[in-house]
Specification:
310 residues; mainly alpha; Rhopdopsin 7-helix transmembrane proteins; two-stranded antiparallel sheet; 10 helices; 82% helix; GPCR_Rhodpsn_7TM; G protein-coupled receptor activity; transmembrane; membrane
């Protein structure tokens, strides 16, 4: 039985769940509370990461600017998308279709653009790690902060305009197009990381065994630094897959088989799992990236809230 219908609002096509099962109602209630609780730490933690990178000179590197872009995306999720999602789900439960439709426009737009921006950023990060390992000493002169910032400006310009295009307006077309883009990004990302991994193995083979009294020791330490950076960025990529794959699978099932009561519950849970990623990402950065962690502590110490009274 189809428990949803297509709703059109100012040319936007959105799915409206007009039949609510007790399980769906309970799921909306629980996930709304969770999203309300998770939105604040998502904004605060990612804001700390953003401030740490901006205020610390040695952190303003091409790789960290890509991380900075991910933090901005996650911050927008906590600041705008999660509150809008909660309101939209509550309006849907109350059968306030007209209000739901208008709130859903902005939520739909953010849902269309933010995952695409995130995936393109992850792809850029994989290419960045590949170039860092392939170019080594030539990396700093070839991959500059200004070039990465120009890339990010172009990325957001394309993503924001794409969200307003006819592709972003029609839900089925959007999911199909996004599936193609995600597949291409996944292919490029895995290829870049695989080639980076092979490049690391070659460099490691060249510097071992080493003589501590020669320059080979410094080269070995440098390779270890690249290896840790490569591992961290690859883990960031895997972390996004863990949180996004359930949602992607649910969307594909909905597009293929249509909506159902069980699938509507699964989609609500999967959406919340995606939003949880916005809180998990900065915690992962604090754990794996020592420089970001230390800079974040300094940012907190400069905040008036955390200053000790004199």
């Amino acid at each position: 039985m189809n428990h949803s219908m297509e709703s059109t609002c100012l040319r936007w096509h959105m799915t409206y769940n007009h039949v609510k099962s007790p399980a769906h109602t309970l799921c909306v209630l629980v996930t709304s509370i969770l999203n309300g609780v998770l939105a604040l730490p998502a904004v605060l933690l990612n804001s700390i990461v953003i401030a740490a990178i901006l205020k610390t000179r040695h952190l303003r590197t091409p790789s960290n600017f890509l991380l900075f872009n991910m933090a901005i995306t996650d911050c927008v999720i906590g600041l705008l998308l999660q509150p809008l999602y909660i309101v939209a789900r509550v309006l849907e439960q109350k059968d306030l279709k007209n209000v739901y439709c208008h709130i859903g426009i902005l939520a739909n737009y953010l849902t269309n653009t933010l995952p695409l921006a995130l995936m393109l950023t992850l792809t850029a990060m994989s290419i960045d790690r590949f170039l860092a390992i392939k170019l080594m000493l030539r990396y700093r002169s070839s991959v500059t902060s200004s070039r990465v910032l120009s890339l990010l400006i172009a990325l957001w310009s394309v993503v924001l305009l794409w969200g307003l295009s006819p592709i972003g307006v029609y839900r089925e077309t959007f999911i199909a197009f996004l599936a193609v883009v995600f597949s291409l990004c996944l292919f490029v990302t895995f290829t870049a990381y695989w080639r980076a991994f092979r490049g690391l193995r070659v460099h490691q083979a060249r510097v071992t065994p080493i003589n501590p009294d020669t320059n080979e020791a410094a080269v070995c330490i440098n390779v270890r630094k690249y290896h840790r950076s490569f591992t961290t960025m690859f883990c960031v990529f895997l972390l996004q897959l863990i949180f996004y794959i359930p949602d992607i699978c649910c969307k594909i099932l909905q597009l293929t088989y249509g909506a159902s009561a069980a699938l509507s519950v699964a989609i609500v849970v999967a959406d919340t799992f995606v939003f949880l990623n916005a809180t998990a990402n900065p915690l992962f950065y604090f754990w794996r990236l020592r420089d970001v962690r230390r800079a974040s502590v300094r940012v907190l110490k400069t905040c008036a809230v955390f200053k000790k009274p004199t």
